[in-house]
Automatic annotation (TrEMBL):
Pathway: Cofactor biosynthesis; (R)-pantothenate biosynthesis; (R)-pantoate from 3-methyl-2-oxobutanoate: step 1/2. Pfam families: Pantoate_transf. This is 3-methyl-2-oxobutanoate hydroxymethyltransferase. PANTHER family: 3-METHYL-2-OXOBUTANOATE HYDROXYMETHYLTRANSFERASE. NCBIfam families: panB, PRK00311.1.
Length: 265
C-alpha cells in the first residue's frame, strides 16, 4: 500500500474525503489498525492513562513515549504515525520543542509530531516545521493544561469562540499540516473548518470537521470507567477479555485445560 503522507491530508480536505485516526501504543494494535485502513495513528500521551496507569497526561515523559512510538511506527506499512509531545517537552521555547521533535523523528520512525496549544505554541510549531518535521496542532480542550483551564471542560463556547478561531489561525500560520479540535461545540468546529485551509480533526468536535480521531481503548471498550459522551464504542474488549479470563480459570480448575492437543508427547 502507498504510504499516507501530509499531502493525503490536504487532498482529503479539498476532495471532502474524511480522514480517520486512532491512538495506538503498541505493535499489535498498530498492525491491525494499519491493515484496516486507518489513515493515521497517534501515539498519544493518553498512554499515561491507558498504558502507564496515571490519572492524567501530566507525568508522561519523552522517554516513556519513545519505545511505544517506535513500536507503532515499526508496525505500519500505510498509516501516518504521529508522535505526541508530552507536557514539559516544548513549553520552554522553540529550541526545546525542536529538540524533542528531533528525538522523536530520529529515535522512533514517526512521520510527524503533535503538540498542544494555538497562539501560545505558534513559535514552537514554526521552528519544528522549519526543520522539515510535519506538525499536527491540537486546540480546544488541551489535557496538558487541565488545571489552567479549570477542569475537563468544553472549549470554544460563547466568548471562547474568538480564542478558538485565533488559535486555529495561529496553528495554520505557523505551518502545521492539520489540527486536532478537542471537545468543542460542533458549530464552532464547523466555523474553524471553513475558516482555515488545513484539515481539522475532531475528537469530540462533531461531524463537520475534515476527519475524526478517537482514543482506541475508549472506542474498543477496553477502558473501564467513565467514557466521554463523544465516544462511540465499537467493541466490548473489556467484556471479551473478562469472560475469557474467567473461562480459563474455570478450565484450569476443572482440568479441561490443557487437553491432549495442547500437550507434548
Ligand atoms: O493523547 C491523545 O490521545 C490525544 C488525542 C485525544 C487528541 O492527544
Ligand atoms: Na495527547
Amino acid at each position: 500500500p502507498k504510504r499516507v503522507r501530509t499531502r493525503h491530508f490536504q487532498n482529503a480536505k479539498r476532495e471532502g474525503i474524511k480522514i480517520t485516526g486512532l491512538t495506538s501504543y503498541d505493535m499489535l494494535t498498530a498492525r491491525i489498525f494499519d491493515e484496516a485502513g486507518i489513515d493515521f495513528l497517534l501515539v498519544g500521551d493518553s498512554a499515561g492513562n491507558n498504558v502507564l496507569g496515571y490519572d492524567t497526561t501530566l507525568p508522561v515523559t519523552v522517554d516513556d513515549l519513545i519505545p511505544l512510538t517506535r513500536a507503532v511506527a515499526g508496525a505500519v506499512r500505510r498509516a501516518f504515525v504521529v508522535a505526541d509531545m508530552p507536557f514539559g517537552s516544548y513549553e520552554n521555547g522553540p529550541e526545546d520543542a525542536l529538540h524533542t521533535a528531533v528525538r522523536f523523528m530520529k529515535e522512533t520512525g514517526a512521520h510527524a509530531v503533535k503538540l498542544e496549544g494555538g497562539e501560545r505554541s505558534r513559535k514552537q510549531i514554526h521552528r519544528i516545521v522549519q526543520a522539515g518535521i510535519p506538525v499536527m496542532g491540537h486546540i480546544g480542550y488541551t489535557p496538558q493544561s487541565e488545571h489552567g483551564l479549570g477542569g475537563h471542560l468544553i472549549q470554544g463556547r460563547g466568548e471562547g469562540l474568538d480564542q478558538l478561531l485565533a488559535d486555529a489561525v495561529a496553528v495554520e500560520d505557523a505551518g502545521a499540516f492539520a489540527v486536532v479540535l478537542e471537545m468543542v461545540p460542533a458549530d464552532a468546529a464547523k466555523l474553524v473548518t471553513e475558516r482555515i485551509g488545513i484539515p481539522t480533526i475532531s475528537v469530540g468536535a462533531g461531524p463537520h470537521t475534515d476527519g475524526q480521531l478517537l482514543v482506541w481503548t475508549d472506542w474498543a471498550g477496553l477502558t473501564t470507567g467513565r467514557i466521554p459522551k463523544f465516544v462511540k464504542q465499537y467493541a466490548d474488549l473489556a467484556g471479551i477479555l473478562s469472560s475469557a479470563a474467567r473461562e480459563w480459570v474455570a478450565d484450569v480448575d476443572s482440568g479441561a485445560y490443557p487437553g491432549p492437543e495442547h500437550s507434548y508427547e
